[in-house]
Every structure is written in structure tokens, then in C-alpha cells.
## 1
Amino acid sequence: MMERLQKVIAQAGICSRRKAEDVILTGRVSVNGTVVTQLGTKVDFSLDHIRVDGKRLRINHPKVYLLLNKPKGVLCTLSDPEGRPKVTDLIRGISGRIFPVGRLDYQSEGLLLLTNDGEFANTVASVGQHCPKTYLVKVRGNPTLDELKKLSQGMFLDGAPIVACQIECFKEGDNPWFSVTLTESKNNQIRKMFERFSHPVLKLKRVQIGFLRDPHLKPGEYRHLTFKEISRFKRLRR
């Protein structure tokens, strides 16, 4: 059956479909010995020889869906030239390659999904308002009500608009905690938002992904998603 090349790469668990497009565009994929950089390319996995970074693509591994409580000081990338710890270093007993769905920055902690199912990752990453993400954020100093209103109504960051979000006070104090819920997120968005009003983020922890919470997972711990949880995520796009 003919399918788009990026979809086949995602099904093989190399990365999400969105990331697979970047892999193709940068010339890292070959089909039957020829480098392919065209996103519209269609292939038949049963007939074509597909390689990513020189390695033959295979789709013969069981699907894995994990929920990890990422500790602070761990990267969400699959490789790091500086040799810093990565989220995949925390996972034991899983054969084959898995990758994070979205990311948390190096200094942040909290819930993170990992999988080898590119279609699942693409669904979770692209459903927007159907899969909001909630964070607990500790900031320096007390933002005014006017500042919080401006933060929640949306703004421009790095020249690009960001959508409105929900911000509620979680714990008062000299350096208060806020609950922040995003339906769309840019790189380091929450940190940049509060920095705009001179209230740098001191701590940031993701506590919910869509419907999914798990307050019992300690930093560095992970578990497999249940069949019900997997099915519920897959239904988000319908």
C-alpha cells in the first residue's frame, strides 16, 4: 500500500510525523538507494527499501506508551554532544527506540509521554485545545492583577502571537505559585511570558497532559499507559 514517506517513518517509531518531515527535508532519508527530500513522496513499505541515517527502516516492534515524571536537569533530546543525561536514559527494559512526545526544557520537571508510535505522538501534539497541558509555576515577586490579565489574554513573543491561556493563583507568598494551562505552547513560553513582566520563573512542573494526571509518580519514575488511556488519547482527533 502506498503511503506518504513521513507517515511510514513515524509508524516505524523513529520520530513523530512532524519531526519526520524535517528528517526528510535535511536529506537523511533514502528510498531504494536514492536520497529523497520531497515531502509528497509516497512509498510502499513492503516493496521499497527505506533508510534513515543509513539504517534500514523496520516496522516489527510492539508499540510502547510511557508516562514519565521528568526530573530537573534531564534533556528531552535523543542525543547530546555534552553528554548530559537524557530522558531515555531513565527507561529500562524497553527494546527498540522510543522518543518523547513534545518536550520539557532542561530546568523543568513533570509529566512527559514517551512512545515509539509516531502516529500517536502526532495526534497528541496536534490536537491543541483537546489536549491542554497544565503547569505549576513558581515566580519571583508578585505579578499584579493587570499583569496576570495581560499574560492570560495572549501576547507576542519573539515576534509571534501566542494564544490565550488560563492562569490561577495556586499558592500565595513572596514568590507565589501559579497554575498555568496552555492549549498551545512555544519553546520556553511560560518562562518568557513571566520574564516579560520581570517575574522570572524559579520552578516549573507539568502536572497534567490532557485528561492525564499522576501525582503518585516520583521524579525519575515512569509507568506504562493503560489500554484505556491510550485509546482515549487516540480518540482526541476524532
## 2
Amino acid sequence: MDWAVLRGRKELLVGGTVNRFIPNPTFDPVAKPGCLDDYYQGKNKAGASIRDAFGELEPIHPEYRTGTHGSP
């Protein structure tokens, strides 16, 4: 596993090949917590795609990576 910058985007390499399984391997930006609750509870009256249900992405919060106490 390794990282490469291709066309200005950080990509994950597995065995020297770009891994497309995880579309955002840096997990930054991310969806807001709970954004898919309504989607998975069947409250998708507008018929939005799951991609649309994610809504606007936001920069990852440091505590998502380090925990609530700021320690890794």
C-alpha cells in the first residue's frame, strides 16, 4: 500500500495499482454525521440517490481522527 498524487488528487495504491474500491481514501472531506438516517429508515420520499443523501461534504473534524481527548 502506498499513496500517489494523480491529476492533483491523492490516490491509494495497492500493489502498484490505483484502488477504486474506496472513492475517497483520505476521508477528507466527509459527510455530516447522521446524514443517511432518513435514507435507511425509508424516509426518502423524493427518491434521492444515496450519493445525494450524503449532502454537502465538510472538512473532517480533527476529533474524528484523534478521539475526543485529542490523543491519537
